[in-house]
Design a protein that fits this description.
Number of domains: 3
Helix content: 40-55%
Distance between the termini: 78 Å
Largest sheet: 4 strands, parallel
Radius of gyration: 33 Å
Strand content: 5-15%
CATH architecture of the largest domain: 3-Layer(aba) Sandwich
Oligomer: single chain
CATH class of the largest domain: Alpha Beta
Strand order of the largest sheet: 2-1-3-4
Number of helices: 18
CATH topology of the largest domain: Rossmann fold
Length: about 450
């Protein structure tokens, strides 16, 4: 590369100064007669020196890059350790000792970029990076790469299978995305490097802590082994979150934050005993039936927190308001829809009634505690008609954009009507007795 730029610079200088070295006969005659040099000659010579200067700048630029790469190799560990130089594989015990030493050197205040690397960059590294992104804040950057990634994009079938195993849809890879190869620049930029199944595969600066995880490859493994590998990666990510002093350190269902999903300070903190629940039918993908109950409780509690505002909105509908003063109400139907969307986001299988059954169990428990009480069928019908009239006024069918499927507005209206009908009255005093934390969110309830 350097000889090319040097020769280019020399060539530009020689060709541009050719008017000085070998002028044409007309220019020679003018010079002999003492004529001033033509402006075109000055322009040609000046342009040549500018081109030569640009070539020299490029030479210096690539020289600096080469020097940085050379210093990177000189100042970092060799690609293979002593055991590898001796022809012996690095043992799992050695990896654990090395990872413990690296974990002891992790300074949470200095780690903002985490690089996760696996041999192919399509399985373990992406899975660990996806789990870690659930726990870190926006100020962290988590990158996943491979040492020898495949050239073609990740097959959709493999993406779907791993998403299902992880139970975190949209946290895997986007369709058509290809794995990225490890480079020196991201290694230097990383504050922490996690190598999974590839110890000493590439040099890392001595000042950068490195965690070597001995985790088998899930690609091609049996289903039981894949779940075991998933659980191992989850435990390691949670340990890393603890070493980074993250606020969220658990990947359990109750502790995961989902995009656009609200939470309340009261969820999981009832003063009465929680009911014993059996497996809700979620199969191997469920985090236990208690986990689904907790998720349903969170969605119902959001509706309870919004109960005074929901009632005020309905009572202020004017001509579309129902013929009775609506008390504080919570929509179990809306909670069911939100939980169903959550299950879809997670890529969780199981029966289609999982969300409905989980929310119904929470509502039944809160009715027994006196937090919720049913409305009469007449009032539920009035709420449904009120909601439909208000929606028809705010978003009439004839104003829907052309091109939408004709049945979509009808399906959306059916869903909203079901949510309006499945509404329960909230009893503030009982709700505060069961969830004292609601006082902070309600202020001074009536």
């Amino acid at each position: 590369m350097f000889p090319v730029f040097v020769l280019s610079a020399v060539y530009v200088v020689v060709m541009s100064t050719n008017a000085w070295v070998d002028p044409d006969p007309e220019q020679r005659a003018r010079l002999a007669a003492g004529w001033p040099i033509a402006g075109a000659v000055w322009f040609k010579v000046g342009l040549g020196y500018v081109g030569a200067l640009a070539a020299l700048v490029l030479i210096v630029f690539f020289a600096v890059l080469f020097a940085r790469e050379w210093l990177f190799v000189r100042r970092t560990r060799r690609p293979s350790g002593a055991a590898a130089d001796a022809g012996e594989p690095v043992s799992g015990a050695a990896l654990r000792r090395r990872s413990r030493r690296a974990a002891a050197r992790i300074d949470p205040a200095r780690v903002r970029t985490v690089l996760v690397v696996s041999p192919r960059g399509i399985g373990r590294s992406v899975m660990a990076a996806a789990y870690l992104r659930v726990l870190v804040d926006d100020e962290y950057f988590v990158d996943a790469r491979g040492i020898d990634p495949p050239d073609e994009p990740v097959p959709p079938a493999m993406q779907r299978d791993v998403s299902i195993v992880m139970g975190m849809d949209k946290a895997w890879v986007e369709p058509g995305q290809s794995a990225r190869r490890i480079m020196a620049a991201p290694v230097r930029a990383a504050d922490l490097v996690v190598r999974i199944g590839c110890p000493d595969a590439f040099p890392v600066p001595r000042s950068t802590p490195v965690l070597d995880w001995d985790v088998p490859d899930p690609i091609g493994a049996g289903l039981v082994d894949v779940f075991s590998i998933r659980d191992d990666i989850r435990r390691r990510v949670e340990s890393l979150a603890e070493a980074l002093a993250l606020e969220r350190r658990s990947l359990d269902l109750r502790d995961r934050d989902l995009p656009g999903r609200r939470h309340t300070v009261a969820e999981g903190r009832a003063t009465i005993a929680y009911p014993e629940v059996s497996d809700a039918g979620g199969g191997a993908l469920a985090d236990t039936a208690a986990g689904w109950f907790a998720a349903a409780e969170a969605r119902v509690l959001v509706e309870i927190v919004d109960a005074p505002y929901t009632a005020a909105e309905i009572n202020d509908r004017g001509p579309f308001a129902p013929d009775f003063t609506v008390p504080w109400v919570a929509s179990a139907g809306a909670a069911e829809s939100a939980l169903a969307d959550e299950l879809t986001w997670r890529g969780v299988g199981g029966p289609p009634t999982l969300a409905r059954d989980a929310v119904a169990r929470v509502v039944e428990w809160l009715v027994e505690a006196g937090v919720l009480r049913p409305l009469s069928d007449e009032r539920r019908v009035a709420l449904r008609e009120s909601g439909q009239a208000q929606r028809d006024h705010d978003d009439p069918l004839e104003e829907w954009p052309r091109g939408l499927a004709g049945e979509y507005p009808a399906m959306a209206e059916l869903r909203h009507a079901e949510e309006d009908f499945d509404t329960w009255e909230v009893v503030p005093a009982a709700a505060l007795r069961v969830y004292p934390g609601l006082a902070a969110e309600w202020g001074s309830p009536a």
